[in-house]
Amino acid sequence: MKIINMDTLNEKQINQSAQMLTDELPLGWAAFGEAIDEIKERLVPQNTLLAAVENGEVLGWCGILPSYEGKVFELHPLVVVKHMQRKGIGTMLVKALEDAARSRGGITMWLGADDDKPDGETSLANVDLYDNLPKHIKEFDPGTHQTAFYLKMGFKVVGVMPDANGIGRPDIYLAKRL
Ligand SMILES: CC(C)(COP(=O)(O)OP(=O)(O)OC[C@H]1O[C@@H](n2cnc3c(N)ncnc32)[C@H](O)[C@@H]1OP(=O)(O)O)[C@@H](O)C(=O)NCCC(=O)NCCS
Q1: Ligand 1 centre from 82 Cα, in Å?
Q2: Which domain holds residue 158?
Q3: Does the Cβ of 156 fall within 6 Å of ligand 1?
Q4: Fewer CB within a 10 Å sphere, N or C end of the chain?
Q5: CB of 63 closer than 6 A to ligand 1?
Q6: How far apart are CA 74 and CA 58, in angstroms?
Q7: Do 6 and 38 fall within a single domain?
């Protein structure tokens, strides 16, 4: 498996990447067209988009977007095809993004992870985040949510946007020093 820049992907591989986004994150990209638009919008020189490719098939992809004059990079998005999850591809992609951000002078990488399923998955869902937020963050429990993956990658919860996806459904901010 190789990690390559997405600006080298052919149309079929771009379509695979878009389909993966719709399949795995339907609350963010409900339709294939929206996922294609996302890739086209992000695939510009100031960002870095990387894909994990094996035998011509895209197995996962991810990107970083610079801000704060290049000191900070937002990780957005990250997805691994369903049948290849939990095999280390997400880890390889995040490490490659960290290297890319570091080589561009980045100090911090961050991301927002929506806890947007109706019942909520983490300890920050369906609680009053306006009451003692530091305690909620200190006692953060990812439950079944993908934030568990980012905690394993060394990210820490640094903030939260209450009700970002409706009452009790926050966006959780995680960051890491590079
Ligand atoms: C989250 C995601 C990118 C992780 O990629 P992956 O290739 O499956 O992750 P890895 O195999 O590298 O896992 C690394 C570690 O994180 C753990 N992990 C991965 N996904 C996890 C999850 N959803 N919940 C809990 N732990 C998880 C793995 O078990 C592994 O732990 P270990 O080192 O103790 O064995 C992938 O599952 C995915 O695409 N999910 C759907 C889309 C998504 O949620 N994207 C992120 C949006 S913010």
Answers
A1: 10
A2: 112-178
A3: no
A4: N
A5: no
A6: 22
A7: yes
